[in-house]
Amino acid sequence: MTVFVCVCFHFSISDNIKLLIDRPDGTYCFRLHRDRVYYVSEELMKKAGNVARENLLSFGTCFGKFTKTKKFRLHVTALDYLAPYAKYKVWLKPSAEQQFLYGHHVMKSGLGRITEATAKYQGVIVYSMSDMPLGFGVAAKSTQECRHADTMTIVVFHQADIGEYIRNEEALT
């Protein structure tokens, strides 16, 4: 739970964390299994308890994993759960969407909009101009700095995107 709380604060959804756990369709929780953090209903978790840990591959939705250096890396599979509650968002122009989906950082020239008062190094959800969530990023510049930046300046560092479903299909469990 501590890891997810850190992720929530990074993406500023901490006020809405209760909405992820106590849902109308049941109670959900976060579980660590083989260095991966899963978001799972308590009902499914109880059923998974009938399988030996060494035989259990995955259960629920993988939110991310711990690297060998014990840093938490958020997976794109968490995007649909975090996007509705994110406080800081970035919208891309249509010309920049494909570049982001190939794993590139966002340049000022591709920035459509950015949430007011976004701080430097704040976690952001990246959207298309039609409000479709595309991935995660970290603001390389604050909202104020973006206004005065050169067009070729990186404004959002790429972290994860929906293109990973195709590029890293075997790694997403």
TrEMBL record:
GO cellular component: nucleolus
Predominant location category: nucleus
GO biological process, one term: ribosome biogenesis
Signal peptide extent: none
CDD domains: Nip7_N_euk (cd21146), PUA_Nip7-like (cd21151)
Residues covered by the PUA domain: 88-163
One Pfam family this sequence matches: UPF0113
Origin superkingdom: Eukaryota
Classification via SUPFAM superfamilies: Pre-PUA domain (SSF88802), PUA domain-like (SSF88697)
A single MF term (Gene Ontology): RNA binding
Record's keyword terms, sorted: Nucleus, Ribosome biogenesis, RNA-binding
Coiled-coil blocks: none
Cellular location(s): Nucleus, Nucleolus
Description of how the protein assembles with itself and partners: Interacts with pre-ribosome complex.
Family affiliation: Belongs to the NIP7 family.
Annotated PANTHER family: CYCLIN-DEPENDENT KINASES REGULATORY SUBUNIT/60S RIBOSOME SUBUNIT BIOGENESIS PROTEIN NIP7
Role description: Required for proper 34S pre-rRNA processing and 60S ribosome subunit assembly.
Protein name: 60S ribosome subunit biogenesis protein NIP7 homolog
Source organism of this protein record: Batillaria attramentaria
